Predict the structure of Transketolase N-terminal domain-containing protein.
Amino acid sequence: MYARAFLEGRLGEDRLDGFRQELSHAGPGGGLPSYPHPRLMPDFWEFPTVSMGLGPLNAIYQARFNRYLHHRGIKDTSDQHVWAFLGDGEMDEVESLGAIGLAAREELDNLTFVINCNLQRLDGPVRGNGKIMQELEAFFRGAGWNVIKVIWGREWDPLLAADTDGALVNLMNTTPDGDYQTYKAESGAFVREHFFGRDPRTRKMVEHMSDEEIWNLKRGGHDYRKLYAAYKAAVEHTGQPTVILAKTIKGWTLGSHFEGRNATHQMKKLTLDDLKSFRDRLYLDIPDSALESNPYLPPYYHPGEKSDEMQYLRERREQLGGFLPTRRTTTIPLQIPGRSGSPTSSAARASRRWPPRWPSSACSRT
């Protein structure tokens, strides 16, 4: 979000230099908090979120309030959709699953959860000996949600099509999340031997593939076509809220020292080789000299105001009604609609108190 605000010109390099240095960098308000909160940046963040369980709860009640406004004729919110981007470890927070039943009962099809299932939390695997995606699927289906799972990238499609006897699917279903983490911390040869090699049928399926091709078998959350299809299906679904469970790799694109490793959260700097690999992977126009001059302070990249990327970004924001995140501190008062054929005087409104005041004779004592 900060990077996008930088591209849009709403945050300068000096503020970005103060990431996670809210007090030590240029005094209070000079840095950027890592955890969004309206109290820390009152003109930027709308809600306190990140992996504390507050995002799911806020999203559900925002979607519910949008329906409330629409049903009572206060505001047309029929084109508004609430998206919550969450983590699989975050779903263990008490608040994360606490209101999913309400979302289903209210049929909030204006709400979509996207849960990034990278199988890893701050202190290790989310479910090392289990399968978090199946667990979350059971929770949400049981609560009445529409569930979409994006597990494997399209590179797996030919292998799955050739899996006529179900050997590959069985292998996938019986492999715990901890093993999947290990595979992505190793190599293609390791995956060939320790994943496909566990069954002679699956070993034969990949014997024509090189170790590099096996290594490049993506997970679904990194396949933009699969994600597009999932987002489209979520928006078009009616009568239920939708959750998209997308399987990914922690530290994807950051290099072999980061991807799938338990130390990812504690590693704050990329090595020079990792920086160059990251640049090449994202096709960034940054010369080697700019990285080599100070590997611990790489330059910020901006494609230029007249670039195709910036033109597209600004066009999309205009069509969507402005830049986000942004938080308004002043609002236009909403007009409360009156009841057709009923008095709307202040005295009449005062008589309709909620909750109602019951006479003492109607109360029972125990």
The beta strands are 82-87, 111-117, 120-121, 124-125, 146-150, 242-247.
